[in-house]
Amino acid sequence: MMGVGLVPGLQLLVISLLLVSTWTLEAFQSETIQTKLGALTGRRTTVGQNNDTVYQFLNIPFAKPPVGDLRFRQPVKFGRWNGTLDATKYGPSCFQDVNSSFTIWYGTSEDCLQLNIYVPFATSPSIKKSVMVWIHGGGYFFGTASFYDGSMIAVEGDVIVVTVNYRLGIFGFLSLGDETTKGNYGLLDQIQALKWVKENIADYGGNPSDVTIFGESAGGFSVGLLSLIPQNKGLFHRAIHESGTANSLLTLGSPVEVTTETAKALGCQTTNSTILMNCLLEKPADAILTQSTMVSERLCNLDRMHCLYFGPVIDGDLLTRTPVELMSNKTTEAYKFFESLDLMVGNCRMEGSLYLSMLGNNVQYQKDKNINVSIGLSHQYLCDVMSPNIANFYFKNNRKVSQAICKEYYVADNATLQSRAVLDVYSDLFFISDSTSTLNAHINSESSTYQFMYNQVLPFKLGPEPTWYEGPSHAEELYYLFTMEYFDRILPNVTISDSDRLLAHQMRKYWTNFAKSGNPNSAGLPVWSVFTNASKNYMKLSKHDMGVGNDYRKNEMKFWLQTIPNLISDSDTSRAKKLKTDSLFLLIISLSSLNFFINIMLVRY
Asked: Which UniProt keywords apply (predicted)?
C-alpha cells in the first residue's frame, strides 16, 4: 500500500534512515558495562557536526523469542542473559515483507523483540536522565526500531532514547475475536518493552520515573492506545503523538476475516479456534506471511481509502471499549490515566500524501475511475467518486454527507487548489480531526497540552511528484527530528543549509524539553503557547514561519466535528441525542447496526 509513488512514500524514508544508520556505524570504540541482567558491550561513537560522543547499546532482548508455542501469545520476560551480550550491531526486523520495507539490510526474524538505547556521553549515577521511548510507524505491517537512530536527539537534548521492535502483521495482530486468539500481541510487546525500561533503564543512566513515549503514524496510534490503558500507569508519564492518535479511523484493524482466509489457504481447519491455532503454530513463518499478505491484498478496496487488516482490536483486556468511548467518559480509569499525562499532538501539513501515493501506485484504479493523478484530481472526482465512497463506507451511504463533503471541498476555477483540496479531505478526515478531538478531550485536565503543525518542505526531493502537489508529506518531520545533518553526506548534490540544521535543532529541543518537564519551551527557542479551550494555540514548525498559530483549520474542523455529526443526527434523531459537557457539545450516538468506523466519526468533542 505504501509505495514509492508520485509523492515521497514511507519506503523512501526507510531507505534514507537505513543509509544514515549505516553511515553512523562506520567507526566506534567498544564500551562494556555491567547491568543487573549481565554484562554487555556497546559502542562509543561521535555524531553530528560537533562530534558529540554517544553510547549506543543495540539489539538488547526484552522478551523471549516469540517462536514455537510462544507464537501468537503474550510476550514473556527475557530475564538475564549468559556471558557478555554483544550490543554493537542492530538486530533483525520483526518478520515482514522485505520487498515493502527494505529490511534486507538487517534481515527479518520472528526472534525480533529487542530494543536499542542511545545515551549521551555525560551520565551520573546520582542524577538520572529523562527517557524517551520511540515506537516506529509502518501501518502495523512494516518498519523496525533500527530505522531510527536516536543519537542526535540524545546528545542535543541530553536525554536517553530507546527504540523498540514489536511484532507486525499477522504475527503481531492475528485475532479470531475470541478467548483463544484475542490479538494485540504487538501492543503487548510495546508494553513489555516499557516494563523492561522501567526495571532496567537506571543501569544506563536513565530515570525510570521520567519516561515519555513518542511515535509516528502507527507509532502515534500506539502511543494513543497505550495512553488509554490504565494498567500502564507508572510506565510512562508523557506522550507525543505524531500523525496518529488513539481515535483515528486507521487505529483498529479487522483481522478476523484475513486470519480465517489465511488459515484456509494454509490448509488449516477453521471451524474450531483451538485446532486452527495449533495448525498455524506448525506452519513456517514465511508461509504464513506470504498467504496473509496475498489475502490482505485481495481484500483491499481502495474505494475504502485504507486497508488496515492487522492492527490493535478491542480485546476486553487491554482495550475494553473503543478509544472514542474511553476518551468521552471522564469517569473511567482509562480517561483518568489519559488526562494525567502531559500531551503533545501534531501532524504534517499534507497527510493526504498517503492517499495520493495509493492512487498513484494503482494504475488500474486510475483507469477504472478515469483519473490521471499527474494532471490533477478534479471536482468531478471529489464529488462523484471520493465523497460517495466516504459516505458509503463510513456513514451508511448517507447522501447528505456525500453532498456536504462535495460542497465543503469544492474549489472553482483552480485545478491546482482543487487537487490539493481532495487530499485535504483525506488529511482532515483521517488525521487532523482526530488530533483535534484528542486535544479537545485533554485540555480540561491538569496536565499540559500542546499542538504542532509541521509545515516545512524538505530541501531535497525524495521522488517524482505532480506539479500541483505541495507538501510536506506524511512522515517528513522525521528527517529533521532524527537525521537531517547526515543527508548532505550520503545524498549526491545535496547541501543542508544552516536554516535546516537550526530547525532540526529546535525540534529536538522542543521534543526533549517536553520530555523533561511537560513544557517544550526553553531559552533561545520561539515561544510555544499551550493549547487551551479558549485559544487552541499550535506551533508552526518551519524554517521561515516558526511561530504560534491559532485554531488550526477551524472551519474544516467545525465541518467534521459538528456539521457531519449533526447531519447524521438529523437523519436518525430517534437514535441520537446531544449532551452538553462543560462548555463543549459532545455528540454521542450509539447505533448497534453500524460498524466501529462510523461510531468514531459520530462521537466527537
From this structure: Membrane, Signal, Transmembrane, Transmembrane helix
Encoded amino acid at 18, one letter: L
Per-residue pLDDT tens over the stretch 504-521: 999 999 999 999 999 999
Over residues 378-436, the pLDDT tens digits come to 999 999 999 999 999 899 899 999 999 999 999 999 999 999 999 999 999 999 999 99
In 3D space, the residue among 590, 591, 585 whose CA is nearest the CA of residue 604 turns out to be 585
Contact by Cβ (8 Å): 171, 185: yes
Q: C-alpha angle 23/29/32, rounded to 5°? A: 125
Q: Which of 204, 227, 251, 60 is nearest to 145 (CA)?
A: 60
Q: Dihedral of CA 428/590/579/406: which sign?
A: positive
Q: Are strands 108-109 and 93-94 parallel, antiparallel or unpaired?
A: parallel
Give the whole-angstrom CA distance, residue 30 versus residue 366. 54
Q: When comparing pLDDT for 451 and 98, which is higher? A: 451
Tell me: the pLDDT tens digits for 328-386?
Answer: 999 999 999 999 999 999 999 999 999 999 898 888 999 999 999 999 999 999 999 99
Distance of CA 316 to the CA centre of its chain: 23
Q: What's the pLDDT at 131?
A: 98
H-only helix segments in 25-103: 98-101
In the structure grid, which three cell numbers stand for residue 126, read together? Answer: 546520582
Instruction: Please state the separation of Cα 341 from the chain's center in Å.
Output: 18
Exposed/middle/buried for 154, CB within 10 Å: 0-12, 13-18, 19+?
buried
Residue closest to 167 by CA, chosen among 229, 240, 76: 76
Q: Provide the pLDDT confidence category of residue 576 given band limits of 50, 70 and 90.
A: very low
Q: How many CB atoms lie within 10 A of CB 140?
A: 28
Cα Rg of the chain, angstroms: 23
Angle between helix 273-282 and 255-265 (nearest 10): 60
- φ, ψ at 393 (rounded to 5°): -85, -30
Q: What would the mean pLDDT of 583-588 be, rounded to a whole number?
A: 28
pTM of full prediction above 0.85: yes
Q: What letter represents residue 457's amino acid?
A: V
Residue with cell 544514515: 20
- Judging by DSSP bridges, how do beta strands 52-61 and 38-47 pair with one another? antiparallel
Beta strands per DSSP E along 121-271: 129-135, 160-164, 206-216, 238-242
DSSP run (H or E) holding 220: helix 218-226
Give me the active site residues, please: 217, 351
Write out the three cell numbers for 206.
Answer: 536513565
Rounded average pLDDT over 47-51: 89
Residue 304, pLDDT > 90, answer no
CB neighbours of residue 260 within 10 Å: 17
Beta-carbon count within 10 A of 474 CB? 33
- Give the pLDDT confidence score for residue 25 in this predicted structure: 54
